[in-house]
Amino acid sequence: MAKQTEGIHHITAIVGEAQENADFYAGVLGLRLVKKTINFDDPGTYHLYFGNSAGEPGTIITFFPWGNAYKGKIGDGQVGVTTYAVPPNALEFWEKRLAKFGVAVEKVERFGEQYLAFNDPHGLQLELVERAGGKANDWRFGEVTPETAVKGFAGAVLYTSNAEKTAELLQTVMGLQKIGEDGSMLRFRSPAELGNTVDVKLAPVGIGQIGIGTVHHIAWRAKDDKDQLDWKHQIEAYGLGVTPVQDRNYFNAIYFREYGDLLFEIATDPPGFTVDETQEAMGQELMLPKQYEQYRNRLKQDLAPLEIREVD
């Protein structure tokens, strides 16, 4: 049987001011700040991880807050829309909640499902959709309870400069199943209960430009280090260059750019976010990899203050 990824591991985006980012994803959307650390390749920048209460793969969105950097342009070669799953009958709650905070919402339909589409404060395109699959998120914050809380990713909409090749990769290399076509979209599915649907936009929209308000990359799940190396060999055999394994402390990562110009990562499920703090304490302190621990005081001075606060 051909290899098959379980689906989305995480999605990483570039945003503006860190406190605004936290106020929206924790304060408004009710996600948990799972990890407060730094960009290992740019240690003067936060790397913030938000997800469900346990920080499980398929629920994690991560951010590089670039402060006053330039605005990006969403386009081909990027995740155009990040879609979250909420419990059945929760969309009415979310429509009212987003309106409460002045977030403009558009109702759209795709593949027979109703979506609430909106932008975050820095321009990222988001959606909410009701899905029965996937366990409830028991994280409580403000007015958000497990009955309405975001479970994790429903999926993502990929904008590509070569839809045929992107679709081919997802199906023949990543092992996703093509399940339908709806107008300008192809849909693929993985076996996971969360992060399991990926829509490919068939028509190009114009090349994207990286910057604030854009997704940097999407990461797919590998079971462990061996599985990840198997993926590396399979992708190289398909004709794409793959980076060496990068130690990201909470997972190991490899990266490659597919023929539609999207940057893909394959990340291991283990060791997870409890490798350096307990699940109960996750997200409370600035966590650093060993190579940067000696610079902790300097980094804390350079990084803007950040707190998780209720905005209700």
Describe the model:
With 312 residues, this protein is an alpha+beta fold. It has a single domain, classed as 2,3-Dihydroxybiphenyl 1,2-Dioxygenase, domain 1. The protein is 17% helix and 35% strand. It contains five helices and 16 strands. The strands form two sheets. It has an eight-stranded mixed beta sheet. It has an eight-stranded mixed beta sheet with strand order 6-7-8-5-9-12-11-10, covered by helices on one side. Strand 2 and strand 3 form a beta hairpin. The model has no long low-confidence stretch (mean pLDDT 97).
Notable features of this structure?
2,3-Dihydroxybiphenyl 1,2-Dioxygenase, domain 1; 312 residues; 16 strands; alpha+beta; 8-stranded mixed sheet; 5 helices
User: Could you give the order of the helices and strands?
Assistant: EHEEEEHEEEEHEEEEHEEEH
The CATH architecture can be given as Roll
Low-confidence stretches: none
What general form does the structure show? Answer: globular
| Beta strand count | 16
Amino- and carboxy-terminal Cα gap: 50 Å
By CATH reckoning, the class would read Alpha Beta
Overall tally of structural domains:
1
Output the structural class. Answer: alpha+beta
Chain-averaged pLDDT = 97
